[in-house]
Amino acid sequence: MKLAAVLLLCGQVLSYNYTTKYFEVPVDHFSFTNNATFKLKYLINNSFWVDDGPIFFYTGNEGTIENFAENTGFMFDIASQFNAVLVFAEHRYYGESLPFGNESYADPARLGYLTSNQALADYVDLINYLQTTRSRSSYSNKVPVVAFGGSYGGMLASWLRMKFPASVVGAIASSAPIWQFQGLTPCENFNRIVTDVYKTALDDDCSAPLSRSWKVIRNITSNDAGKAWLSAQWKLCTPLKTQSDVDTLVNWFSEIVINMAMVNYPYPTSFLAPLPAYPVRSFCYKMTESQTVDDETLLTTIGAALEIYTNYTQTTKCNVINETAAALGEDAWDFQACTEMIMPMCSTDDDMFENSPWDFDTYSENCYKKWGVKQTHPELPILEYGGKEISSASNIVFSNGLLDPWSSGGVLSNVSSSVSAVIIPEGAHHLDLRGENKDDPESVIEARQFHIRNIKKWITDYYYSRDRKFFKNTSLYEKVTFARRVNT
């Protein structure tokens, strides 16, 4: 089935074409007694591919794979330069890639196969199949594969290169918080970055009224009349009734504030929600002169400002407060965040959020109540992937935007001569993986050029190593043709 995703950005129409396919993978890659399989969805674009060209492989993350393909225009932008085939693989338990169909979330026994290791093994199997079907008849070896990923997908891309270097020649890991785990990164760093984004959005400190708002919300919703009033002001689909509802509202509000910082792009986008250029700035404009108003006016002002995120298209009739990013698989990610991807977060007096200490025991107990699983080893991903001891890795570029709160757990300095860090001062969440845009800051343009140079080197080195025998036993014409190909 062929699909074309057409995006309108600042008057520029971008068309990303792909064909939807499915590949059968084991439910459990690490068992010799479980033979169950399921169909993993992937998207493919062959239009740029020339015989023996590389594969650019996106390691899908927590959502439908179409959403990531449509927001990773960088791969489409450079595919013709490398004669590459583009592949976007969906992560198991997201989108259509459900190991047990509609029963995939039914119980812990079925959900237990939702791990990063299983997902990486899915990708390795798919890569092997794709390489095998694209080998040149004159060569016995396979075409090179470069992994790409953003956010959790960037973590997967880097881990794919670390654990399976024979499958991918290198990885572009954008906004990949591989160090956002217990003992590696202070839990308060994430929210401090979010706060800084709001502090600097305008000349007035936009974080101050937000810092005040949490106590105001708690005070006003301390009685039924206040709950009803705020439910109406913020246009909630389901009115607040209990203290638990208020807690859910506070979490929803916090997540929206964080999401706007993450996708604070310099042009309109629709990745997490339809948003204007620089949504934090637009939000803060609506908050101007709100620092000295009374409590009810403050919350009324915030409710109107939130519509930058919740109702930019003017089509939302009411707000569902247990969802902030419909395109992402929030339930499946919640399970992962309870089992393997436990990333400590906390708030202190030094940020604009309601104070909230990190308490692993309470976190683990809440996970057990919801999912029926209890993680007693939060250091598991550090043991699996090495934590900060990754100097033995090679051919990875970690890129991070300093406007992105996830940079708190990112690799911000070079690890070695072949594991590099790229800093994008004006960049939000994996901005460098998005398609070229006339409003791109210079720092993201430079980051993409750095990616291209590294990809060229990785592919050239691979071809040269693979084809040394070919080089020794071919004509001058064939050697020149080969050299032109690898240096395109």
From TrEMBL:
> Which domain of life, per UniProt?
Eukaryota
Leader sequence range is 1-15
Its GO biological process terms? proteolysis
User: An example Gene Ontology cellular component term from the record?
Assistant: lysosome
Q: What is its EC number?
A: 3.4.16.2
Subunit structure, per the record? Homodimer.
> To which species is this protein native?
Tenebrio molitor (Yellow mealworm beetle)
**Keyword annotations of the record:** Carboxypeptidase, Disulfide bond, Glycoprotein, Hydrolase, Lysosome, Protease, Signal, Zymogen
Q: Where in the cell is it found?
A: Lysosome
Q: Which reaction does it catalyse?
A: Cleavage of a -Pro-|-Xaa bond to release a C-terminal amino acid
Listed name of the protein? Lysosomal Pro-X carboxypeptidase
Family that this chain belongs to? Belongs to the peptidase S28 family.
Q: What does this protein do?
A: Cleaves C-terminal amino acids linked to proline in peptides such as angiotensin II, III and des-Arg9-bradykinin. This cleavage occurs at acidic pH, but enzymatic activity is retained with some substrates at neutral pH.
Pfam families linked: Peptidase_S28
Give the molecular function GO annotations: dipeptidyl-peptidase activity; serine-type carboxypeptidase activity
